[in-house]
Design a protein that fits this description.
The complex is a heterodimer of chains A (502) and B (376). Chain A is mainly alpha-helical and 502 residues long. Helix content of chain A is 71%, strand content 3%. Chain A has a two-stranded antiparallel ribbon. In chain A, helix 4 runs antiparallel to helix 5 and helix 13 packs antiparallel against helix 14. The chains are: A mainly alpha (502), B mainly alpha (376).
């Protein structure tokens, strides 16, 4: 059942890529949307078979592969992975839908999108460390090509920088995985047996350090973040949606699954430092976002800041904060995808993303009123205004993390205030005021451009009003992520065993 | 050697001065401008007809009705009309009242002088006395606040005067459109000439106002007051609505407390010739109401012309406003030419100098208008 989530897009990619006669661009797009729609539906089927009260792995699949390497084809889904699988299926469909209908080389572009979808799904499902690594690496090359071929004027530089950073991330993660099995004397990379393996604290620090830096590059956390703004600025809109909405989540997922999961003692000792790192990342991202004049770069730095909340929640490791980490991943995925979509529409219609040039786009007659309204909604969600998904996720993060790390949490709350600052600057400059004379003849936005943004906006509001539709899938699994032996240094047992609010 | 022509103007808008002297118009003569101007004046004529009827109805039938709930219904109240009114799919008579109040506020012409005269005071008091007969409460209030009801009557007089002015203008614009439909109008100068001729023809038409109370006629502005169409309504209208106007939130960004608005009304430049069409379309501001009204009556050729543009019907009100502004520059041209002290093509040097001085005065006021913008 789970394999279908990987093989549907893979077969779709093969079908488009190797079909004897070249399909028309329109038909290629339709086939891709159909395949991704099928994958999204199948994710729904998986969700319907999933038991949210069971904290363990479900719907597992196992096939021996290369025993001598300890590599097996072992898949499983739990409450941590399921929401991310849904996010992956949804946002890849949105990315394919919002791709330029007349782009060059569609026969290469759409299969690459499908490969990314398959790779990310595989990474979320893999229950073997080597298999995870293979899927983790699988999405690098398609993404590199998508930036390098369909990107902006400095696409070569941005794609290469992305590849170097994320390849280094892969090397560090692989080193940690190899070290884990080598130091523990295990022959297998299967995840579940490794959970019960107890390494000395010193070795755990070493391996966790590699994991932290490896996934820290992917998230990205300061100071390993510099590839992200460049990649976002040069990538086309759908690729930015995928990058911010899904691919960054591989990093936070990896931290939770492999950092906290495999090295709980070392994690507990390092937790205060991780929380401090999170606060620095949040504040740095926010302050850098304030300084930007390119809307896309601003949203990219906003991503750096908001992914810091996930690290804060993961560091606190309370049941509530871990649930918050998962919810923040979903929340950020939806909000950042919407923000990038909207910035993309603005760029497509005005030819600029410069907030010192654009003005008055909310003009009801000559501007982009619906896009402007959705942008206001998106920035409100990102700034944590109640009634939207961002408020729930940030409130959960702060509520769950404050008892463990009050200072760091307060600093992160300042970051939320700064989010309002830079996004209000953006909205005020770009959307309010009188439309610039150079922009008084903008083309109108058709429903093709509006639809994906409207879908995401509806989800942002719906999940803001009814967050239990997401959190009930993850409550049991995130509670089970905390090993009984783990204890965050300097914090009381009551904090660690803090229950969910009733 | 004797000079036979005045020296060329050094005014910043000298090209327009020379153009007017050469028989050109402020608005360039292009086929597109002709379609826009005639088409928009057609729809404006239809709307003005409705405004005019309602203004005259309010002046005549709602005289000193202090709570005129149904004043926009022209005496024909029905549940269907009430629902339509609330649904706002209707003529926005509020705009006509707004223009009336602007004229009342800015004043000017013989109308303002007459409404401050002893004759008006005496005539209005007679009508007020009849209206308040048997109403002890209102009589008491009238004694306490003796200026209130005469001011209401002044306002009624402006309702009537504007209604009569727009009656004439509506007919001019609709007959212009008919002539265009018969292919008798081919250029912007012809449009200006036609409007100018219409204004001149109606120039001496008397402006009067009277009400019938208890079967007796009370002349508030009798014909003997000598008020006429051109000098007592048209000229104050152009001054108040084309030039001065009032600053609306949403059309002009201002901070009144920081004295960004001149305390001198005569230096106001918020009129139709200065309005920025872009913010038009914000909710509720009066010019938007006019654009909403006009878009219902656009002739097909103008509607098609608008549809061919990039935004199609998305920015219809902005386009209507732009066309309306162009048409108002045509009316302004007609007014400038019509009010000139001497024929603009005169060969008399003194007359030329007088004309030049006259035109420079107009151009001073048009410097910050949208004159340059409508050239493209």
């Amino acid at each position: 059942m789970l394999s279908a989530l990987i093989w549907i897009p893979l077969l779709g990619a093969a079908l488009i890529g190797f079909w004897p006669r070249p399909l028309s661009p329109h038909r290629t797009r339709l086939v891709t949307l159909a395949v991704l729609g099928g994958a999204l539906l199948w994710t729904g089927v998986v969700g319907s078979q999933f038991d949210p009260t069971n904290p363990g792995l479900q719907l597992t699949e196992y096939l021996p592969w290369i025993d001598s390497l300890g590599l097996s084809y072992q898949l499983g889904v739990d409450g941590l992975a399921l929401p991310l699988l849904v996010l992956n299926s949804l946002l890849t469909w949105v990315a394919a839908y919002s791709s330029d209908k007349s782009l060059n080389r569609p026969r290469l572009y759409y299969p690459l999108l499908l490969l990314i979808n398959a790779g990310v799904a595989g990474a979320f499902l893999a229950q073997n460390l080597l298999l995870f690594f293979l899927f983790y690496e699988l999405e690098l090359i398609p993404l590199y090509l998508l930036i390098a071929i369909w990107g902006g004027s400095r696409r070569g530089y941005a794609a290469t920088k992305f590849l170097i950073y994320t390849a280094l991330s892969g090397i560090l993660i692989l080193s940690a995985f190899l070290g884990l099995t080598w130091l523990g004397g295990s022959n297998s990379f299967d995840y579940q047996p490794l959970l019960s393996q107890a390494l000395p604290l010193g070795q755990q620090f070493l391996l966790l350090g590699a994991i932290l830096v490896g996934f820290g590059i992917k998230i990205p956390l300061v100071p390993f973040h510099t590839w992200l703004p460049d990649a976002h600025v040069e990538a086309s809109t759908p690729i930015s949606v995928l990058l911010a909405g899904v691919l960054l989540k591989l990093g936070t997922y990896g931290l939770l699954r492999f950092g906290l999961g495999l090295f709980p003692q070392a994690w507990a000792v390092l937790a205060p430092w991780l929380a401090t790192w999170a606060a620095i990342s949040v504040l740095y991202g926010a302050l850098m976002a304030i300084a930007q004049t390119d809307m896309k770069k601003m949203v990219a730095y906003s991503s750096v800041g908001h992914m810091g909340y996930v690290l804060l929640a993961a560091a606190a490791s309370t049941p509530l904060s871990l649930l918050a980490a998962v919810f923040q991943m979903i929340s950020h995925g939806l909000i950042s995808a919407l923000l990038f979509l909207l910035v993309g529409v603005v760029y497509k219609k005005t030819g600029s993303r410069n907030i010192t040039v654009l003005r008055g786009l909310l003009n009801p007659e000559r501007g982009l009123p619906l896009i402007g309204s959705l942008m206001v909604l998106a920035v409100m969600a990102s700034a944590g205004i109640p009634g939207m998904v961002g408020f729930i996720s940030e409130f959960l993060v702060f509520r769950g993390s404050f008892p463990a790390f009050p200072v760091q949490t307060l600093l992160c709350m300042v970051g939320t205030g700064l989010t309002a600052v830079y996004f209000l600057l953006l909205v005020n400059r770009v959307f309010f005021g009188r439309l610039s004379d150079s922009e008084t003849d903008l083309p109108s936005v058709d429903w093709f451009d509006r639809t994906p943004a409207v879908i995401l906006a509806v989800l942002i509001v719906l999940l803001g009003l009814q967050p239990s539709w997401v959190v009930h899938w993850s409550e049991a699994a995130t509670a089970a992520l905390i090993p009984p032996s783990a204890s965050i240094a300097s914090h009381s047992a009551s904090v660690i065993s803090q229950e969910f609010p009733q | 050697m004797i000079k036979t022509s005045a020296p060329a103007s050094t005014h910043p808008l000298a090209p327009y001065i020379e153009g007017l002297k050469a028989g050109k118009t402020l608005l360039p003569d292009t086929p597109e401008n002709l379609i826009e101007v005639v088409g928009i004046l057609k729809s404006y004529g239809v709307v003005l007809d409705a405004y005019s009827q309602n203004l005259c109805y309010i002046a005549d039938q709602q005289f000193l009705v202090l709570f005129p709930f149904f004043k926009y219904f022209n005496g024909q109240v029905s549940p269907q009309k009430l629902l339509r009114h609330w649904w706002h799919d209707r003529i926005n008579f509020e705009y006509a009242e707004y223009v009336m109040r602007s004229m009342l506020w800015h004043g000017g012409g013989g109308l303002e002088t007459y409404l401050d005269s002893a004759e008006f005071q005496q005539r209005s008091q007679a009508a007020i006395a009849v209206k308040l007969k048997g109403n002890w409460l209102m009589q008491g209030l009238h004694r306490l606040f003796p200026e209130f009801l005469p001011e209401q009557v002044r306002q009624q007089a402006y309702y009537s005067a504007l209604g009569q002015f727009w009656r004439v203008m509506s007919d001019i614009f609709l007959t212009l459109s008919d002539r265009y439909d018969r292919q008798e109008v081919h250029s912007i100068p012809q449009v200006v000439d036609y409007i100018g001729a219409g204004l001149v023809a109606a120039a001496s038409q008397p402006i009067t106002f009277g009400v019938t109370l208890e079967s007796q006629r009370y002349e508030i502005i009798p014909e003997s007051a000598g008020l006429t169409f051109l000098s007592d309504t048209a000229v104050p209208y152009v001054e108040a609505i084309f030039f001065r106007g009032t600053p609306f939130l949403g059309t002009v960004s201002y901070n009144a407390q920081a004295h960004q608005i001149s305390p001198d009304q005569s230096r106001f430049d918020y009129g139709a010739l200065y309005a920025d069409p872009l913010p038009i379309g914000g909710s509720g501001i009066p010019p938007t109401l006019l654009m909403q009204d006009m878009r219902h009556f656009l002739p097909d050729y103008l509607h098609n012309f608008y549809r061919q543009s990039r935004r199609g019907e998305d920015d219809l009100r902005v386009k209507v406003c732009q066309s309306f502004q162009k048409s108002m520059f045509c009316v302004t041209t007609a007014a400038i030419v019509g009010l000139a002290p001497h024929p603009l093509d005169t060969e008399d040097l003194q007359q030329q100098q007088a004309n030049q001085s006259y035109l420079e005065t107009w151009m001073d006021r048009l410097q910050s208008s949208r004159l340059q913008e409508v050239q493209v």
